[in-house]
Structures
1.
Amino acid sequence: MPTIIPLPAREAHPDLDAEARKRADRLNRATTHEMQTALAFLSVIDPEAFEIAFQAVPPSHDDPDTGDPQPLCRRCGGPVALFPDKGMTWHHYRGMADVGGEPSIIAKRHKPRVRWYLPCEVPDGV
């Protein structure tokens, strides 16, 4: 016996192109804040879809390489690092500590004041 109240049902043969156009139109009308909120939500409910969405658009060559942040002295802009054999304190150094070379600790007239910079934010001359 059929019910008196009609139940919501999906169309038997939906027009997938029309649905895709509706989503594209909605995306075009979205503000930056709405897009960020939607992507944050997507990253929580479906991390795999989030990763796929970010692979769909290749990175822009105009964007600076963000890479990993690096510690620099806030006072002089020089490179600083932790040296376990020196009591796990920050020291100014010379050399390539991050590439496996032998860095040498250098004495400055001040203690390092550490600030983390992305490669695109590194002050000129460092």
2.
Amino acid sequence: MGVKEFFKLNVLKVVMGILLTIITFEIFMWNSNQFSGTYNTITTIILIIFCILIGYLISCVIDYFVKSRFIKILIAVILAIVAIIFGWFSLARNVMVCDPVHDPRVCDPVHQP
């Protein structure tokens, strides 16, 4: 198998690449809170491109070493479940606040029971 065959597109490879990109991006975004908490636009674009490359490369490796189509589909389903769980945790961790009055952590008469 040559380099062309290793990187040749097929449906499962693209699906696994997309799911791995989502998982990788979520992991990087979770770790961003330890440093600065936010990324600027250029850093985010570079991070997304890096995640896409890593996700597709890992899916190429999985496609190369796993020969059974059933196992590849099973891996894609597991990756989808993991991506959904990461997305759910990401949404659960983020508190959207439009202003300080609507922040439930702020003790004011509006939020008193």
